[in-house]
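U., I forgot to send this yesterday:
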Amino acid sequence: QVQLVESGGGLVQAGDSLRLSCTASGRTFSGYAMGWFRQAPGKEREFVAAISWPGGSTYYTDSVKGRFTISRDNAKNTLYLQMNNLKPEDTAVYYCAARSLPQPTTRHYQYDYWGQGTQVTVSS
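Result:
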């Protein structure tokens, strides 16, 4: 399967910013929609943002609109999530995911490949 690796998580204070990255090993994201999901302790995995292949169409959950930006650099085979004005409720493990179709969805079970996650902790 496609191997995805997230990076860029960390411990920050409310109002700070982080930029998450997700890279694929061994192959490109050609034809794949990409998404970010997160899972807080004791909670279900939830949709955060997604982007179509090759890019240009983006989608966000309401709670991150205006604060987060998803983007992709197909030449670098890398997906990004710029997170600004972080809030304590953003604390979660963030996962990148790839879907073997160009149009993304908000449903985690419709994505085919997943990274291991990167921890984002936002203190108040």
